[in-house]
Amino acid sequence: MEQEFRRVSRRTILSEVQSLEEEHYRLIQICATTVEDGYEILYTFGKGYDEVQVKIHTDEGEHVQSISRLFPPAWLYENEIHDLHGIAIDGITLDFRGGLYRTKEKAPFAHKEEKEGK
Amino acid sequence: MSSRSVIPFGPQHPVLPEPIHLDLVLEDEKVVEAVPSIGFVHRGLESLVTKKDFKEMVYVAERICGICSFGHGFGYCDAVEHIMDIEVTERANYLRTILFEMSRMHSHILWLGLMADAFGFESLFMDTWRIREKVLDMLEAATGGRVIFSILDVGGLRRDIPDDMLKSFLPVLDEIEKELAIDVKAFLNDSAVKSRLCGVGFLSAEQVEKLGCCGPFLRGSGVKRDSRKLGYAAYDDIDFEIITSDDCDTYGRTFVRAQEILQSISIIRQAIEKVPAGEVMVPVKGFPKGEHMTRIEQPRGEACYYVKANGTKFLERMRVRTPTFANIPALTETLQGCSLSDVPILVVAIDPCISCTER
């Protein structure tokens, strides 16, 4: 059976996950993928053995809202996405400001042009 | 009012050879806050998908970690097989289950040894690791490798394991079960051990759910969830109950892991009895196109493998969410309010695998 990856707008991500939180879903993971015209961020939530995949698209340089106030463990995933992909995430409850990963190269998974511009 | 001080813990751990750092905020001997730092040895293996083709990536996935090696290879293959609509043969599924459970056994036994070392029970540490060698010997006989097996491939297994070899594992499993029962008794009943584990690192069922915990850390707080029940490989045909503990502390987590070793023996026995004859590999044609998220139960908990493919031989993305990564927020929670002397035990109690986390 094919999995469903529900696409939502970057601007409505908080209200989308709010409804999942109210339905007692838990956060399984968040990850980012570098795509041609920016980044995709995939949120996976679970309830029992069921899962829901929610995906947003963000252009380079755009800011994304943190979901860590609704799902506390999100702070770790969001810091990771910031450190590896260079995506700015606003309102992380425990923000390491780029200090979670000690990589030799800053934001190694970011778009090349973006890294050169920094 | 006592004054606060911050002390660095790690990246060198008294027991673990892998680097994790914690800034511990103390009031006298009590930890009031713990801030983790990781990324000392981050390897960026996920980014290799743009340089290695999707078949070569099996080797990379297996090398994420030396302990959970088989699970990583399996999770990656499973995600690609879903995208490509590949149905693995029944025999391959059973053999994968056997190898997965042997991996769980050696991982959990290794952890028991580390835990014994952490609370200063050297003879228990040595005995558990002696028993673990027997599991590694079986894996070596079956695959040619002790920790990195390179037997997995997209579509099944690279080579078969003969039935007579599988049967020869049964008396070894009997022996391991007998010897391990003595060590497990010491772990669960010894008063000195209990004094270091009971009541340490309490997290309720509600807390572990909220903090996104997985694996024995989750089940040690009474939550009955194990991703093997999703039914991948041959787990649908195997009879096993999810092991939980209502202790909600380090003792509960130890109990779950100890019992899971014995349960793995039972699963392997069932699988050896039921393994059907047949091929272990199906032909794989073309390149993957699509995306899939696979969830499996690694020894340390649920691991997620997200694969996105564009129809070429190179993937767009492979993402591995390791169980240790998921358990870090809960680790910082258990450290709050604990005594400084309990920090090494609480860190070991999540069975941290930093190589997985620094994939």
Description of the structure:
- Chain A has 118 residues and is of the alpha/beta class.
- Chain A has helices at 13-22, 74-85, 112-117; strands at residues 5-7, 26-35, 38-47, 50-58, 63-65, 88-90.
- Chain A has a four-stranded mixed sheet with strand order 1-4-3-2, with helices on one face.
- Chain B is α+β, with helices and mostly antiparallel strands and 359 residues long.
- Chain B has one domain (45-335, 342-357): Cytochrome-c3 Hydrogenase, chain B.
- Chain B has helices spanning 57-62, 69-83, 90-118, 122-143, 163-189, 191-197, 205-210, 216-219, 250-274, 323-335, 343-349, 354-357; strands spanning 4-9, 21-27, 30-37, 152-153, 156-157, 289-298, 301-310, 315-321.
- A three-stranded antiparallel sheet of chain B has the order 1-2-3. In chain B, strands 6-7-8 form a three-stranded antiparallel sheet. A two-stranded antiparallel sheet of chain B has the order 4-5.
- In chain B, a hairpin with a 2-residue loop joins strand 4 and strand 5 (156-157).
- Chain B starts with a strand and ends with a helix.
- Name the assembly state: heterodimer
**Radius of gyration computed on alpha carbons of chain A:** 14 Å
Determine the fraction of residues in helical runs of chain B and give it as a percent range. 40-55%
- Could you please say which CATH topology of chain A applies here? Beta Polymerase, domain 2
Shape of chain A: globular
Low-pLDDT regions of chain A: none
Number of strands of chain B: 8
CATH superfamily of chain B: Cytochrome-c3 Hydrogenase, chain B
User: Helix- and strand-based class of chain A?
Assistant: alpha/beta
Q: What fraction of the residues of chain A are assigned to beta strands by DSSP?
A: 25-35%
Largest sheet of chain A: 4 strands, mixed
| CATH structural fold name of chain B | Cytochrome-c3 Hydrogenase, chain B
Q: What is the first-to-last residue Cα distance of chain B?
A: 43 Å
The tally of helices of chain B reads 12
SS element count, helices of chain A: 3
